[in-house]
Amino acid sequence: MTLATDFDFSGRRILVTGAANGFGAAMADLFHAAGATLVLADIEAEPLAAVAARCGAEAHVYDQADPAAVERLAAAAGPVDTLVNNAGVLVAKPLLDTSFAEMRRVIDIDLVGALQLMQLVGRGMVERGRGVILSIGSQTAFSGGENRAVYAAAKAAVSQLTRSAAVEWGPHGVRVLCLAPGRALTRMSRETVQAGRSGDRGLARVPLGRWGTAEEVAKLAMFLVSDAAAYMTGETVIADGGYVLG
Question: Which end of the chain is less congested by CB atoms within 10 angstroms, N or C?
Answer without folding.
Answer: N
